[in-house]
Design a protein that fits this description.
eight-stranded mixed beta sheet, alpha/beta, globular
């Protein structure tokens, strides 16, 4: 079995604890207007690699991952589209080296499809993009009901989760939406951390290279004050604070 790989980073520091090998998978069913990897959407492109080839890329840096409390993170695109392949990869990472495993996902997945992968995943980074169903479709071209079910399933199986929310001015910063997002997160006791990620424009050049019109050309990056307001509102909805 081979996976379709977009790219990888040997020294990732923002996708889970410690220093991590970050594997970007090819393919995504969502088309977020602010996506910084639009070249990862198409499923049938990317480099095909088997588990052993990926393990060979990880092995030279094992000491860094172990000493920092890091490990391996799979992201995308959307990694759950290749869940059976990644389950095999995580099994080998644990069997050979005892590595900590992280799944970074948008949750647009039926839990039954990803259960084998979740069984060997230590931590899920769940990207909740927009709690309002209609606004979620406008932002990503897909509804969020499947994502809500996935989040609830992670809670049901008591899988440790960090929630991520990208703050996009005019799209994901509405007062009511942020409170409602906090209300939902507050129903999930398995969530231990909230990461509010300010919108950035670092991937705009990829849209240009692909000949795609960038939908948020006029969208500003949020200020520190706007980010602090958003985090306060989410935590107000949760009625608690996460680190």
């Amino acid at each position: 079995m081979k996976g379709r790989i977009h790219s990888f980073d040997s020294f990732g520091t923002v996708d889970g604890p410690g220093i991590r090998f970050v594997l970007f998978m090819q393919g995504c069913a969502l088309q977020c207007k602010y996506c910084h990897n639009p070249d990862s959407w198409e499923m049938n492109t990317g480099k095909q690699m088997d588990v052993e080839e990926i393990l060979n890329e990880i092995e030279p840096y094992l000491e860094y991952y172990r000493r920092s409390g890091g490990g391996i993170t799979v992201t995308g695109g959307e990694p759950t589209l290749q869940a059976p392949f990644l389950a095999r990869l995580f099994v080998e990472c644990k069997k050979r080296w005892g590595l900590h495993t992280v799944l970074d996902t948008n949750g647009f997945c039926e839990p039954s499809h990803a259960q084998e992968l979740l069984d060997v995943t230590d931590l899920v980074l769940l990207d909740l993009k927009q709690i309002n169903p209609d606004k979620h479709i406008s932002l990503t071209a897909q509804p969020n009901d499947r994502i809500i079910r996935f989040a609830e399933h992670l809670n049901k199986i008591d899988k440790p989760v960090w929630i991520r929310h990208v703050l996009v001015p005019g799209w994901t910063d509405d007062y009511k939406d942020l409170l409602e997002l906090g209300n939902f997160i507050g129903t999930l006791p398995n969530v231990s951390k909230l990461e509010l990620l300010p919108y950035h424009r670092m991937g705009v050049y990829k849209w240009q290279q692909m000949g795609k019109e960038y939908p948020l050309e006029q969208c500003p990056t949020p200020t520190d004050q706007e980010a602090a307001r958003a985090k306060d509102l989410i935590e107000m909805g949760m009625d608690t604070e996460l680190y």
